[in-house]
Amino acid sequence: MERWKRRIFILAMGFLFAMASFTVALGQEIKIGVIGPMKFVQGIGHWNGATMAAEELNAKGGIQVGNQKMKVQIIQADSNEFLNVTDATNAMERLITKDKVHFVVGGFRTEAVLPMQDIAMENKKIFIGVGAAHDELCLRVAKNYNTYKYWFRGSPFNSSFLGRTSFIHLGTVGAILKQSLNIPKVKVAIVAEKAEWTEPMIKAAEGAIPSMGMETVGVWRPSPVATDVTAELSAIQRSEAQMIFTIFSSSVGIPFARQAGELKIPAVQVGINVEAQKDGFWQATQRMGNYVATMNTYARGVEYNELTKPFVDTYVKRFGETPTYTADTYAAIVYTLAPAIEKLGTLDPDKLVAFMENDVHKAPSGVVAYLKDAEGRHLHELRWGPGYLTALGVQWQDGELKAFWPNKWKAVPEAPEITYKGIVPYKIPPWMIEKYKK
Amino acid sequence: MNLVLNIIISGLISGSVFALLAIGFSLIFGVARIVNIAHTAFYMVAAYCIYIVTHQMGFHPIWAMIAAIVLVTLLGIICYKIFINPIREHEGAVLIATIALAMAFQEIMALIFTGTYLSVPSLVKGYFLILGVKVFYQQLLTFLVAMLIMAVLWVLLTKTKLGLAIRSTAQDREVANLMGINESQVAMMTMGASVGLAALTGAVVVPLTILEPHMWMHPLIMMMAVVVLGGLGSLKGSFLGAYILGFAEALVVFLAPMGAFLKGSVALSIMILVLLIRPEGLFGVSFEEER
Fold first, then answer.
1. Any CB–CB contact under 8 A between B110 and chain A?
2. pLDDT higher at B83 or A2
3. Of A38, A79, A156, B61, which is most buried by a Cβ count within 10 Å?
4. Which architecture, in CATH terms, is A10-156+305-368?
């Protein structure tokens, strides 16, 4: 009798244990922290991209982890990083210790992402950066692989590649000006906001501009949050520059474009102006941002590959605006994390890192692959170039953001020409034509 | 020559914006000893009012300007009655209450409009040339409004009974009370005028800038620098201080373009230098004598 009781007890316990395990498995979710300045467009982009990713994956039942499907739960963390870096680190701590997320995507300002990266790495959490561009974020991986291997760059490519791409845009537009307006040697004013990520770009620009047969007439460094740049614009006009190479990621991009357009400064703007990448730029500049050109990741009607159109169209339909590069949290979750988890059937960060760093996959903005440094060490840095990621050169043309680059672009003379579907010609502002076509 | 002209024009314009803000701040401090840190937050609220009236309601910017000035002045008076008047005797508490008020305005605007950068149309579009230097009509308007406000304030303070009451209250609150002046009412009216000036500044300056919930912080720092430089509570000092800092900023941008981001820091350094030599500010003593 005692033996039977013991057997029944063991069976009951076993049944209860099995039921409990099954229930836990059913209730388990993959928690992804989405960190960014949520009161600002950049953070809203992070959240929108992640929302779309979670909805899409959950509609298919979730992500297959081994023999079970796990739903994706996204958790928002407002980093408030434009105003306070401490808020950003606190938000990251909260995601990891309180919300117990498995992965983190997002971040925007390098100054805030560097300490956020440290916290994520200490806790061995895979952190895919979608916003910050400074090279140092990935150089840390090579320098101290065991600590920083959980970091991957998701978007955009690094400052050096951003610089290289924007110099190509500068050269392209410079050649158009030279040819169309008969300007023998184009003069360029460099205008860069005072921020860490712009420093290497300024140095590179000062070296690259003369090598492209153009002349640098000066460097202006307004505050990232300057609201009046008329003094700078007057000084630029005095310098007789025909091109302004802009390096802006903050709000200064709006007053600069608006005031330059309103004053009809006879110099075209090319380079990086993150504010000009957004649909709201047209209203924010009171339509004075016409002809402003910038590098961008997405533009309506332009396709890198078969994944671009469905992503852009769905995003526009869902959120009423064109995605900016911070919405690449979508690609980070759907095309980087999810396939790696499904392939390996685990959430173990070390196993995932080993797979992800060698993975090459398509995303809506091109083909994602990660670089190694000259010594063969992993950087987890995005590969730039034809066949991988190139971004676009876009220009505001009468209220619409149109892509003008790459248009028959050859990375090297022997390389095939690249033109994405939906590219249009660059337009010179009429007041430039009026001034120089005499 | 062209460079000098550029510096003069740029300095006059920046100085006019600082002057418009600093005069309102000085007025309420001089009369009621209220350090209203929320002064530039009222400027921010006015800017958003203009945005709502022009963009969401579709009215002409001039109507938006009028609506903003009236509504923000009323808001200022209500805030004074509810938050400031009960604690007026404790200057430290007033300071903290106005900081809290400014933060509350900021967070309310952030909740409604998020941090998205917005803008409003100019009241007068386009620009004109002065010896080859391009100047926005809106900038000219800002300069003219600064001049007009100074003239109106001078007339109000020296030629009217209300001005006499304001000056008497500024000189000695208790004696003014004994002479039959309703000191509390004068303080409330001065608060209304001061906030009205902040709203007017918002109305003329906002087309030249961008709207976002933190837009009140940088002007606050510059405004404080101006009033400290000019002498706390001195209208004359604020006016002069504003143009000194305006010209300092212009000089930095034109003579050291690589250090354009330092224009605010250089202006603040000038303030510190002046204070080291003259701790009461440029017109601190003169104002005491006036009082």
1. yes
2. B83
3. A79
4. 3-Layer(aba) Sandwich (3.40)
